[in-house]
Amino acid sequence: MVACPRDWSWNTRRYPSPDYDLWIVLDGEGTVFAAKSAEASAGDSRQEQAFPVMAGSCFLLRPGGRYRGLQNPDRPLTVFYLHFALLDSNGAMRNLEEEFPLFRSLSEMDFIGRMLQRIVDACSAGQPDTAACWLHAVLEEIRQQDRQPSGSPVHEQLRAQIQGLCRRIQQQPGADYRLKTVSAACGYSADYFGGQFRAAAGIPLSEYVIAARLNRARFLLRETDQKLSRIAESLGYQDVSFFCRQFKNRTGYSPGQFRRQSRPDSRLPDSRS
Question: In this structure, what are the phi and psi dihedrals at residue 246, rounded to the nearest 5 degrees?
Fold first, then answer.
């Protein structure tokens, strides 16, 4: 996982990847351009397909593909990327292009995020076989989301509203997402919308919001020097003590413990002021 600097840009024209690259946006905004052919001129929009990216955007970049990326410097990207090759029984690289489209928008980021962290942990521990098992699990989850039938209980208009809401929660987890307020804004009763959100996302709206807030809290604790009170306030918590309890109940660590563990060189106090 990497947090891109404000001046980040990306172009694979000179050094295309020899294998597949799973590229998932965890936060931020930007655009990825994919060349339509190997002969396409770099930067020629007529020969590229543009994909606006945000939290939940997912690419399975092809071996030898030519891609370039830009980001909104006011909302820098945080991305997870993994180079990999899956081999068939003869030791040749499997062709995944028919199984997976180049781009999709993931609707259940929390579940996939936990599996991605397992891959990172296994690689860090020198356990490539375990990492490979988690990679297969991630690809299977992506495949299941791609295959979600159009005739599911959530009709298409409501599904689009729910997917948009999920993206908004990931981007702005500190906003007010009370079920009564959100359902009214979408034009549905709270009971109906709540049930349909759970059918689409796999968990209740309240749990989705908590997961998004704690995911952002982990990022802020690891990547910034913000005090706990500021982090809690930015994530919509009125009471820093409640934030700390919820964080520990869900992660097993207090915010201060998590910060010290993820930043062993940090001397920041476990301060709430």
Answer: -65, -40
Distance separating alpha carbons of residues 71 and 57, to the nearest angstrom: 13
Q: How many domains does the chain have?
A: 2
Q: Tell me the two tokens of residue 222.
A: 């690891």
Question: 174-231, pLDDT tens digit by residue?
Answer: 999 999 999 888 888 888 889 888 877 778 899 889 988 998 999 999 899 999 999 9
Residue that the structure tokens 């910060």 belong to:
259
Cβ–Cβ < 8 Å for 31, 8: no
Alpha-carbon distance of 152 to 161, in angstroms, equals 15
Residue 151: inside a domain: no
Sequence-separated (6 or more) residues with CB below 8 Å from residue 113 = 26, 215
SS3 call for 220: helix
- Continuous H helices in the chain: 109-124, 128-146, 156-171, 179-186, 190-201, 205-223, 228-234, 240-251, 255-262
Q: What pLDDT, in 10s, does the model give residues 163-183?
A: 889 888 988 999 999 999 998
Which pTM does this prediction carry?
Answer: 0.53
pLDDT tens digit string along 245-262? 999 998 888 999 999 888
Which structural domain, as residue segments, surrounds residue 67? 2-107
